[in-house]
Every structure is written in C-alpha cells, then in structure tokens.
C-alpha cells in the first residue's frame, strides 16, 4: 500500500506585545480573501481520501465535487454534477450528468471522467479511504453510456448507491491511477493556487465554474496546532474562521457551538492479548468515567455515548446507553481474567492523535488513569496525523503490541452502512477485529431498505455493543467554531469534516 507520507510542519506563532501576530498567517491577504485557520495541515489533497477530516474540509465541494451531495441540514441527497438518477434494474443505476461543466484545466467534464473517477476510487490499487469507508467489499462497475449518461452496476442490489457515490469526487481521466495526487484538478468553485508546505494553502476562485460564483475571490488556509493561537487569530483579525476550538481557548463572543456529528471512541486490538479476552474489553469500558470526561476535559461539549452513530443516522438505537462507570466491576473482570491466565500485565499502548479534538492528550491521560486504576498496564503515545493514520488504516503496523486507538467518527451520510462495514466488519478498512456473526448482521442490514434497514442496523449495533465489544465509545461531540465579525457562516453537523466556502459570506 502506498501512502502519502508528507511531513506535517506547523509554522510557529510569534506573540508580540500589544497583540497576537502569527508568522506567515497571510494577514495582509486582502478583503476579498477568506482566511481560515485549521488545527492541522492536510497530509494530501487526494480527492479519494476526502472522507478523512483533514483532507475533506479543504477538498470537498471546494476543489472537487461529486455527482450528488447530501445536505447536512435536511439529510436529502441533492444534484451536483449529476442532474438526476434512476434505477433501471435491481443492480443498475443511470445518472444524467450536468452539461457545461469544465475542470480547472479547461477540459470538459463528461461521462468518461465520471466512470474513470469511480474506477480510480474503487479499483486502482491506491486503496483510497473512500473505498473502504463507503463501499466496503461492494462490486461496482461504471461506464459511460454516452457523453452525458453514466451507468453504474453493482454485484448485488444496493438501495443507497447514489448516496455512496456522493463520496466519490470527480477528477479528469488523466489523473494518476498509481498513487495519490497532492494537488488535484477538480470542477469546484475554487482551484489550487499555491501550497507552501507547512505555511499556507491558497485557493483561487475558478472563473469557469458552472454554478454560482462564491463571494470570495480566494481562500487562504493556515494551520496552528494550539487552539488558543487559532482563537487569538480571530480576535486579532488575522483569520476569519477557526475550527476545532475548546471553551478554554478564549474565542469569547466569536465562538459558535454546533452539533458536529462526531463520536469519539477508542478502537481496541481485540485480536491481541489481553484485549482478546471479552472480560478485559468490558473492563476497559467500565473503567472509563465518561460523565467526568465530558464534564471536565470536554467542558460539556458532548454527551456520553454507547454507540458509534448519533441520533438522526439510520440504525441509531435509542436503547443503547453509555457504559456506566464502575471501577468495582472493572477490577473484578480483570481479576477473573488474570486468574484464568490472561496476561493482563501486558503493556497496552493508547495511540492518540494530536489535534483530533480539543484537549486530545488530556482526554487520553484521563482514560489511562482509569485503566491503570482497574489493573491494566497502559501507556499513552500521542502522534501527529501522518503517523497516526498508519494505525487507522489497514495494513496496520506489524510490530505494534496491543493498542487502543484514539479515534473519532462522523457519519455525514446519515446511514449506518457508512459506519458498520468499514469500522466493524472483519475486512473493514479501519477495523482491527470482526466476527462472522456481526458480519452477517451487517450484510443483512445493507441489503434492506426503509424501516427494515433501520431495525437491522440497530440490531447489529446492539450485538456489537453487547457481544463483541470491540470499542470503548466515549461521547457524541459538539464543536466550536470561531467567526470574525466580517464574515457570516452557519455551521452544520458536517462543518467539522467539510466546509463549503460558497456558504461563507461577508457580514451585512
């Protein structure tokens, strides 16, 4: 597997007397440039990895576009580069493509590009995150029926294929199929202008865009790991939008809270001792004080959770509650496992990710404290996004011992299919463990439609939480975004993973 291993370099902040000035922040960018500060630099702008937060919030609907787009506020699938679609057989869908669309290099977008984009995402060998996250092991074939008609065939009936394809960003046929591209060519309202690695990324408005032109002529992204620095950049006028903030970062009246659709959790290496023992995995869950974690570390920006999908997603089961905090039960389970010869003293490493959410390291230290108190040998290793991704996606590092991976999952698509197979399936791209019984339940749910789909996914989630216990789900999260007075933007549940620049306007 070839992975982009671009070094993540973060330019330092320079604090000057009388205010906060951040080196190379682009503060002189001009009134027609929207300035956004992010917690981390994207490791790549590869469109087929746009389901990853760091990449998606820059790429999706800004540089590249899909055939259809789910509106976060309504959950409805709306036309984008396709004007409509219909199912012509149980396994075949036809998409009518929008005419008059061009890529940033001036070439026309047509059905050959659409078919190529689907094939590149699913069959090129790049091992795109979208492939595992959205499609799993689905068999999908795309071909151009004519210049403006795309025909997509699946190996088995798929009632939500148009929704799945909304995660496939369109690229021209000349795009590299052997490796990830750093600076893609798309059809979006913005094109890549300059990328100064470790400093900033500038997007320029694309004059040939098929839709309504966005208000800002350019967008300038910078990255600062410290939330307090990002908040200070808003206060000092050096940035217009800052994301991934915590209450303690000091954004003040500039801060806006919103439900961000993210669920924080710990993925367990359930195939490695001592985590291969169900009692130990249950003990991990009992040992974590979720209410305390939300109240203190998350400063109330969340709600203790027991399942990986939030309310509003097909499959969400309101009867699944967060695990209660019981150190007595945790210690008893560890004691039982120890008595049966389970090597509970084996070192378990929490693999954390800097910047995944505010106070990420503090959250893992709190978890570590609880697990040690329960009788487990736990260490914390915090990594930047590139190194952390090696543990997120298959194939995982072979020399790692048993790990708990700090992760966060946002189901923007609104269907548990985009959670279950990739995260819990035996062969899922982000799955460290699965069972035949859970695989069967996931497969049955994916074939279902309507109310039956809801019930089957709820059953699969309940089975995972009660019998498999592959995770320690922590909380359904809220986010904080800071806005400068000169801009107007209404955050939505998808804002943590994608930020549509066209939705940002100058304030009245």
Descriptive tags:
508 residues, alpha+beta, D-Maltodextrin-Binding Protein, domain 2, Dipeptide-binding Protein, domain 1, Dipeptide-binding Protein, domain 3, 3 domains, eleven-stranded mixed β-sheet, four-stranded antiparallel β-sheet, 13 helices, 21 strands, 26% helix, disordered N terminus
Q: Tell me what the CATH architecture of the largest domain is.
A: Roll
Please work out how many helical segments DSSP would assign: 13
* Poorly predicted spans: 1-27
According to CATH, the homologous superfamily of the largest domain is Dipeptide-binding Protein, Domain 3
What is the chains' assembly state? single chain
First-last Cα distance: 49 Å
Helix content: 25-40%
In total, the number of strands is 21
Strand content: 15-25%
Tell the overall outline. globular
The class by helix and strand makeup works out as alpha+beta
Radius of gyration: 23 Å
CATH topology of the largest domain: Dipeptide-binding Protein, domain 3
- Give the overall average pLDDT: 91
Organism: Streptomyces boncukensis
Pfam family, one: SBP_bac_5
GO molecular function: peptide transmembrane transporter activity
Keywords: Signal
Task: Summarize the entry for a quick read.
This protein has 13 helices and 21 strands. The chain is of the alpha+beta class.
Structure characterization notes:
This protein has 508 residues and is an alpha+beta fold. It has three domains: 14-46 and 185-258 and 479-506, Periplasmic binding protein-like II (D-Maltodextrin-Binding Protein, domain 2, 3-Layer(aba) Sandwich); 68-165, Dipeptide-binding Protein, Domain 1 (Dipeptide-binding Protein, domain 1, Alpha-Beta Complex); 263-477, Dipeptide-binding Protein, Domain 3 (Dipeptide-binding Protein, domain 3, Roll), CATH 3.10.105. Helices cover 26% and strands 24% of the residues. It contains 13 helices and 21 strands. It has helices at 53-59, 111-123, 129-135, 161-165, 227-235, 278-287, 290-297, 327-339, 360-374, 385-392, 417-424, 436-447, 450-468, and strands at residues 14-16, 19-21, 33-38, 68-70, 77-79, 82-89, 92-97, 140-146, 149-154, 190-196, 200-205, 218-223, 241-242, 255-268, 302-304, 347-353, 377-383, 403-410, 471-483, 487-488, 505-506. Strands 3, 10, 11, 12, 13, 14, 15, 16, 17, 18 and 19 form an eleven-stranded mixed beta sheet that branches. A four-stranded antiparallel beta sheet has the order 6-7-9-8, with helices on one face. The longest helix has 19 residues, at 450-468. The N and C termini lie far apart (49 Å). Residues 1-27 have low confidence and may be disordered. Residues 1-23 form the signal peptide.
């Amino acid at each position: 597997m070839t992975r982009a291993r671009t070094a993540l370099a973060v330019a330092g902040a320079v604090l000057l007397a009388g205010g906060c000035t951040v080196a190379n922040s682009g503060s002189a960018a001009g009134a027609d440039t929207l300035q956004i500060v992010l917690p981390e630099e994207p490791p790549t702008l590869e469109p087929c990895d746009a389901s990853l937060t760091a990449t998606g919030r820059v790429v999706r609907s800004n540089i590249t576009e899909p055939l259809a787009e789910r509106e976060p506020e309504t959950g409805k699938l709306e036309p984008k580069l396709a004007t409509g679609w219909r199912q012509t057989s149980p396994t075949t869908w036809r998409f009518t493509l929008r005419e008059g669309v061009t890529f940033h290099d001036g070439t026309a977008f047509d059905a050959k590009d659409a078919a190529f984009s689907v094939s590149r995402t699913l069959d090129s060998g790049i091992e795109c995150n979208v492939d595992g996250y959205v499609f799993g092991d689905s068999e999908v074939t795309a071909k151009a029926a004519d210049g403006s008609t795309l025909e997509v065939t699946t190996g088995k009936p798929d009632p939500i294929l148009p929704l799945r394809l909304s995660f496939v960003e369109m690229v021209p046929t000349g795009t590299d199929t052997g490796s990830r591209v750093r600076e893609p060519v798309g059809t979006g309202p913005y094109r890549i202008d300059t990328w100064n690695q470790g400093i900033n990324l500038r997007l320029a408005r694309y004059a040939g865009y098929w839709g309504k032109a966005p208000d800002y002529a350019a967008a300038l992204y910078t990255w600062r790991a410290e939330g307090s620095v990002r908040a200070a950049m808003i206060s000092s006028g050096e940035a217009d939008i800052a994301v991934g903030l915590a209450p303690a970062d000091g954004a003040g009246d500039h801060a806006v809270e919103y439900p961000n659709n993210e669920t924080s959790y710990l993925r367990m290496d359930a195939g490695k001792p001592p985590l291969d023992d169900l009692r130990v995995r249950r003990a991990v869950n009992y040992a974590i004080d979720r209410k305390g974690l939300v109240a203190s570390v998350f400063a109330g920006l969340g709600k203790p959770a027991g399942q990986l999908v939030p309310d509003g997603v097909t499959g969400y089961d309101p009867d699944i509650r967060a695990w209660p905090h019981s150190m007595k039960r945790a210690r008893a389970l560890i004691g039982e496992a120890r008595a049966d010869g389970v090597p509970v003293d084996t070192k378990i490493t929490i693999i954390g990710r800097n910047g995944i959410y505010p106070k990420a390291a503090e959250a893992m230290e709190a978890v570590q404290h609880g697990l040690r108190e329960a009788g487990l040998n736990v260490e914390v290793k915090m990594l930047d996004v590139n190194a952390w991704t090696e543990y997120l996606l298959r194939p995982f590092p072979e020399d790692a011992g048993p790990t708990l991976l700090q992760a966060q999952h946002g189901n923007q698509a609104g269907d548990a299919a985009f959670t279950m197979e990739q995260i819990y399936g035996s062969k899922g791209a982000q799955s460290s463990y699965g069972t035949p019984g859970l695989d069967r339940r996931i497969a049955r749910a994916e074939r279902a439609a309507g109310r039956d789909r809801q019930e089957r996914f709820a059953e699969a989630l309940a089975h995972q939480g009660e019998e498999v216990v592959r995770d320690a789900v922590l909380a359904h999260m809220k986010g904080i975004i800071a806005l400068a007075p000169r801009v107007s933007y209404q955050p939505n549940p998808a804002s943590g993973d994608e930020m549509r620049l066209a939705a940002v306007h100058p304030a009245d």
